[in-house]
Amino acid sequence: MKKNISLTVVIIITAILSSTFFSCQKTDTNKLAGDWKIVSLTSSYAYKNQKYETSFDGSTKTVTYTVTDSVITVPNPTPHDSTITYSEWTSYIGEVTTDYHTDGSYVYNETFKNNETGITETKGIDGHWYFTDANHSSEYGLDDLLAMQVDKLTFNTNFGNIYSAIYQGNNTLDIYEISTLKKDKIVLKMEKAETINFILYVTTTEFTLEPR
Amino acid sequence: MKNAKRFLLLIICGILIIPMVNSCKVGDEDSDFTFYTRKGRLCQDWSFSYYKHTVQHNDTIISNEYDGSSYITVFGNHSFISSAIMSISFNKKGTYTWNEQISNDTSVYSYKEEGYWYFTGGGETTFKELLALQKTSHTKTFQEGGTTTTDTYSAEGNLQTVVYRLIKLAKDEVKMESKLERQYIQGGNTVLDIETTVINLAMGAE
User: Fold this and answer.
1) I need a surface site. Which of A10, A131, A165, B117 has the fewest CB within 10 A?
2) What is the ipTM of this complex?
3) How far apart are CA B185 and CA A166, in angstroms?
4) Same structural domain for residues A66 and A19?
């Protein structure tokens, strides 16, 4: 009887240890995999008195640049500075697709035709994607963040290649928070504020993906 | 009959132990077996036993190398040797602190960086083979001839991270490296930039 109990205890301990070490294995990478298109996107980048904003509804993209300044002295009724806001915007027609593969690679493509100039611009990225592990301090759990690593970047217009770069190795990771991860919908967002030598730079991006 | 039962139980135990041996060897130089988790192994106070950061732009190379006491900067045919202390601490709550103090007869440079750390990986790498460092602040101070210059950075949110491949993650030693090659065309010429960082850590911050 005693021997049976001790063997049972050995098995239980072994099973517990084994399950602990099973946790070292890879996380499930199938959640994200698929061929997706961006159906909506809003992003902005602001520093000092300047702001760049982009909105995209799945076919029309508008890029707006705004600068706010207070340089004009208005003489009447009493001299004071006046604030002016200057804006300019450009509209495009096009599409954005992203395919996440189960082997950890991804392909991003965007094609937009400038409504004013008629020039078509294409941007392509090949890279790797990763989930990050949990972090108590930043309050993100396992698979809450998506890290994207660029391996190849190309930017072309219908007048030829403008820029291309190939990265090999441990390129920096762009981090996105996974707001929604369903079979038919993914929402990713990135919000960051950086203060570099007392100047604040704020970036926000949020986009929704649906299957193609 | 009793012996047969016992034999069967031992086989079951053996099968359950197999994944213990294989699943935790992640880095090339990791041991085959350990009772400590990867988090448990990483989260300690470390001193740098070796550090080398090299930046190459075409044929121009700048390197900074630390052997545990001396910090050597090499640029072209110039080299500068200073004494230094470098340490890094990883906290189980997910934060890290990186400290450097490099000094010579005429100047003192100090650097403090703080941020979040994450294990990551997948695809061509194993999960938790990569260590991502997300810097949330740094302060660089350079003192020379009575003049102090300071460079500050602070940030929050979904910040870009640098990433290292963990070659060895043991309770008493960590080896990691980050290598990035970037090739692009500028003015009709192909440009090659290479940035490499090699870090070896030993137990205990000095």
Assistant:
1) A10
2) 0.84
3) 10
4) no
